[in-house]
């Protein structure tokens, strides 16, 4: 008796046939997608559809819980569900082989429908990867389960007495698995060679010197406190929040930006080089996400290089509402179909609203919007910071709800004043005595004027503020705490330049950003 006879029962074999068929189907679909658009692959398309339909609260929870891994978790979840369904169909094939094969095809139709309905769908061809995969998967299931149901000589069992042809089954299944793996590998290689164009184009970008450089950081703007957020967030540590399951990789040389809509006298159609030919400005701007909890990590500060968007709009004949312009909302659209709505007034009021091409001295990283993104000081990212931008339409808030607004987030969302304690960490056990409490505070475009720390129920004590870079950046702060032994709660609050102190009222992130004060509990140990 060979090992296969000993270890594989007929039910397990059927489930395995289902699994291998599903695997082959997905592998073939991904190969087909590589020839059409990577985003048209079934896992990405279904994943995108799930992201778009996820209620705001759940999406927020996913960002909180899984952070930058939220998309990986989603895709693994889709694969796990697919695997379970595939095994169930394998079992079904023992009784109803045709129905089970048709079931595989049905799931392919779900993938095809998802791909066709993506906002960035490239047209009917996007259905092909799922359809090709589904056909192959259905055929594979039918063939692989053949030996399980046909070779059942009742009188003289040929293979160990349960009446199915193990040898033939294992040969076929092994071949299907190998074929799937080979196909998947080719698909992967094709995909990465396509993004190779974009990678080469990014490497070839030479950022011009800014016509208006950012002033040097004033002395004292960056504190040297262990554990504090560095004043400038390195690109590799900069938070990432977006709906893209596949990071768009757009070569700079094929990129275009169209500016059009209400009150535009002359449509603009710009190339990357057109942007670089403009007088570029370089500015430090702190970006924050509306999904950031009080004390959360979704804030970062970078030195951006870009063209002033307000000037471009003015050249196109756009007037802000305060000067009688008919459009109060600017809708930015990205290559992946995301839409973000920004007040025209804010973009044209003289602040440094940028079409950014550079981040901390290099071309934008792909994950942060290469080749071009928007950055507008003072507004949460979801109403201003369109990555992979390709279109700007002037319209009104009445006429159009962009992506997040359709999902219950506020149409307008200036950043709320916040202070965060970076050190000590929650439940840290510092030695009693002098402990440096430190962190960052932000109120972009208003500026931070005061940060105070409260120990337990004691009085508010003024913290030392680092020198301000600009009112569009966060400000570090520190406080020397004389810690007595025991458990203590440290709370922080900031006051912005309008004189308003950060509210103590707690609000969830939905619909326009969390409020409340950050506190941490620490246990000071007997020195
Ligand atoms: N195309 C696109 N742009 C986008 C988003 C997105 O999902 N797609 N997310 C926005 C949100 S919610 C935020 S907070 C910022 C985050 O920018 P970052 O990932 O570079 O930090 O990008 C904004 N721009
Ligand atoms: Mo965000």
TrEMBL record:
Region described as Disordered: spans on this chain: 495-515
Transmembrane stretches, start-end: 72-92, 99-116, 128-149, 169-190
Q: Which residues form a coiled coil?
A: none
Question: Entry's Gene3D superfamilies?
Answer: 2.60.40.650, Oxidoreductase, molybdopterin-binding domain (3.90.420.10)
What top-level branch of life does the organism fall under? Bacteria
Query: From the UniProt record, which GO molecular function terms apply?
Result: heme binding; molybdopterin cofactor binding; sulfite oxidase activity
Residue spans of biased composition, Basic and acidic residues class: 495-507
Q: Which UniProt keywords apply?
A: Membrane, Transmembrane, Transmembrane helix
- Oxidoreductase molybdopterin-binding domain: residues covered: 246-399
Cite the InterPro entries for this sequence. Answer: Ig_E-set, OxRdtase_Mopterin-bd_dom, OxRdtase_Mopterin-bd_sf
Q: Name one GO biological process term.
A: sulfur compound metabolic process
Can you say what this protein is called? Molybdopterin-binding oxidoreductase
């Amino acid at each position: 008796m060979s090992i296969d006879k000993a270890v594989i029962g007929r039910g397990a074999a059927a489930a395995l046939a289902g699994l291998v068929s599903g695997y082959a189907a997905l592998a073939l679909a991904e190969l087909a997608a590589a020839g059409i658009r990577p985003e048209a692959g079934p896992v990405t398309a279904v994943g995108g559809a799930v992201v778009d339909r996820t209620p705001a609260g759940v999406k927020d929870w996913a960002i909180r819980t899984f952070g930058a891994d939220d998309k990986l978790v989603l895709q693994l979840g889709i694969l796990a569900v697919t695997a379970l369904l595939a095994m169930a169909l394998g079992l079904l094939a023992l009784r109803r082989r045709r129905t089970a094969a048709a079931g595989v095809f049905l799931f392919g139709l779900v993938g095809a429908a998802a791909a066709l309905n993506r906002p960035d769908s490239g047209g009917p061809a996007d259905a092909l990867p799922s359809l090709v995969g589904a056909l192959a998967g259905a055929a594979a299931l039918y063939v692989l389960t053949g030996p399980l149901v046909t070779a059942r000589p009742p009188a003289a069992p040929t293979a160990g007495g349960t009446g199915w042809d193990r040898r033939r089954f294992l040969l076929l299944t092994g071949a299907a698995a190998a074929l799937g793996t080979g196909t998947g590998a080719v698909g992967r290689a094709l995909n990465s060679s396509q993004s190779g164009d974009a990678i080469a184009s990014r490497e070839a970008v030479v950022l011009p010197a800014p016509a208006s450089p950012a002033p040097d950081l004033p002395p004292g703007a960056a504190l040297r406190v262990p554990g504090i957020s560095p004043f400038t967030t390195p690109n590799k540590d900069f938070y990432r929040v977006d709906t893209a399951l596949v990071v768009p990789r757009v070569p700079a040389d094929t990129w275009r930006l169209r500016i059009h809509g209400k009150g535009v006298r002359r449509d603009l159609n710009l190339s990357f080089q057109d942007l670089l030919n403009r007088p570029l400005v370089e500015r430090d701007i702190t970006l924050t996400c509306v999904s950031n909890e009080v004390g959360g990590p979704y804030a970062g500060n970078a030195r951006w290089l870009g063209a002033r968007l307000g000037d471009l709009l003015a050249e196109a004949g756009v007037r802000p509402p305060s000067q009688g312009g008919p459009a109060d909302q600017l809708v930015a659209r990205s290559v992946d179909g995301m839409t973000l709505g920004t007040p025209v007034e804010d973009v044209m009021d003289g602040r440094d609203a940028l079409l950014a091409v550079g981040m901390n001295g290099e071309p934008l990283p792909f994950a942060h919007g290469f080749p071009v993104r928007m950055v507008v000081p003072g507004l949460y990212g979801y109403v201003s910071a369109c990555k992979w931008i390709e279109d700007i339409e002037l319209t009104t808030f009445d006429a159009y709800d962009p992506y997040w607004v359709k999902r219950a987030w506020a149409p307008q969302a200036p950043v709320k004043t916040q202070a965060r304690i970076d050190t000590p960490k929650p439940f840290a056990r510092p030695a009693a005595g002098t402990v440096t409490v430190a962190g960052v505070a932000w109120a972009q475009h208003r500026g931070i004027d005061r940060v105070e720390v409260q120990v337990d129920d004691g009085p508010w004590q003024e913290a030392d503020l680092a020198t301000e870079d600009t009112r569009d950046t966060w400000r570090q702060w520190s406080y020397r705490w004389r810690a007595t032994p025991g458990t203590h709660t440290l709370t922080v609050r900031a006051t912005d330049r309008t004189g308003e102190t950060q509210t103590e009222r707690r609000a969830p992130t939905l619909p326009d950003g969390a409020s409340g004060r950050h506190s941490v509990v620490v246990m000071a140990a007997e020195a």
